[in-house]
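Justification of computing resources. Each target in the renewal requires a structure prediction run like the one illustrated here; the chain below, 210 residues long, is used simply to show the kind of job we budget for.
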Amino acid sequence: MPIVRRWRVFDDCEIALWQITETTDELQQNLIASPDEWAEYATIAHPQKQREWLAGRQTVQALITSNALTYSGLVKDEFGKPHLRAANAQISVTHTSQYVAVATHPTLPVGIDVERVAEKLRRVAPKFLSEKETQHASDNLARLATYWCSKEALYKLHGVRKIRFKEDIPIDDFDDAALFLTGHLLYAAGPQTHRLHRFWVDDFCGILAV
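Resulting C-alpha cells:
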C-alpha cells in the first residue's frame, strides 16, 4: 500500500512510513531507477528482499516528488550510503519485512532505523551497549530496541565504516515515554551531539537521528 504515515519533526525533517503489502510486479510499476540500480536489483535473489528494495525506492520517490522536487533515482557512495541522484535533499532509508521508513532533510545528514522489539536483542546487547547503558537498559526489551535503533541511526547518519557501536556511539539515559533523546558520535574528527526522535509502529521501534 502507499505511505501509511507521514509526519514532520525538528521542523525540517520529514518521515514517511510504507507498509509492504504489494507484489514485486506492483512495486516496479512507475518506479524511477537508473540502469545501475536495476543492475543492483538483479543481484537480489530472495523475493522478500526484492520487495523491500523496491518498496524503499517507492517510498523515497513518493516523498520527494510530493514535495515538488525532482526524483531521478538513488546513488550509493563508497561506503554504501544512499543519496539522491538529483542531490536536492538528504535522505536515509531503512526497511524490515513489513515496513519501510524514509527520512529527509533539506540540508543536514539524517539517519533512520526501525527494529522489531524481539528477544534477540538480549543476546546481542553486550556487543553494542556500554556498561552505563547496560545498567539503564536493565534487560528491558523496549529500551534495548531504543538503544540499538539510536546507534544504528547515528551510524547511518555518519555514513562511514569503523565506528564502534559500544564505544563510539553513546546514548544519554531516556525516559520510557520519551519521544526525543540525545545521542553522540565520538571519532577522530571530533565529537558530535545529535537529536533523536523515537516512534513506534506495531511492535517495531523507530529512531530518527539528525
